[in-house]
Specification:
There is one protein chain. This protein is an all-alpha fold and 108 residues long. It has one domain. 82% of the residues lie in helices and 0% in strands. It has helices at residues 3-30, 37-55, 60-74, 81-107. Helix 2 packs parallel to helix 4 (81-107). The longest helix is centred in the first third of the chain and has 28 residues, at 3-30. The protein starts with a helix and ends with a helix.
Length: 108
Amino acid sequence: MNKLQRGLAESIAGIVTGFVLITIVTSFAQDGLIPGYFVWLFGLFFIIGNIATLNSFRYFGLLYALGWLFGSLLLRDLLSPIDFVFNIIGPIVILVIRIWFGIKNIRG
């Protein structure tokens, strides 16, 4: 399996895993098994993990951040205002970090 196929497979697995986990955490909160703020904490940790992980991928992280931003804009009607803000800030932070390190590497 080449690097592109491996990267796509890992990204699809990550998206599916994230969706399943947030669905489970949300349903636990709705059933009263865990406090509601756990959903927000889980979302915050998920976004921080995404930013840290995607910053380590040279090209894929940039493309993923652009896709994340575009997808968030497309789904803005389905997201709560706070979710929308987190899903806009996350990719923008990734893009700023990538640009910062790109400029830093050019300057050498």
